[in-house]
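Posting this for the archive.
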Amino acid sequence: MNQLNTILLQAQSGGGFSGIIMIVLMIAIFYFFMIRPQNKKQKEIKKAREALSNGDRVVTAGGIHGKIREVSDAYFVIEIAPNVSIKVDKNSVYPAVTQQPQAKQ
């Protein structure tokens, strides 16, 4: 009976170590499939924002399309219609992917 208890205690103590390995493995998988790609994407967006200049077409986080008229350290002034401009924080502006055809007036 004493040998049986010894075997059971050894099996239980080995299970804790494999549990820790599984948790570390899950964290590593989560990092490489979720966190790392998101950080990479954020760097690309930041790089694209820094490259924006006057005359570039942009889209705000709210979905407003316009053209940059003024660039500052913290904001852009965007013309959204003739003689209508808005001041928008830099972090909520994205480069426009496609060029919108201009409506004829």
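The beta strands are 57-60, 65-71, 75-81, 84-89, 93-95. The mean pLDDT is 83.
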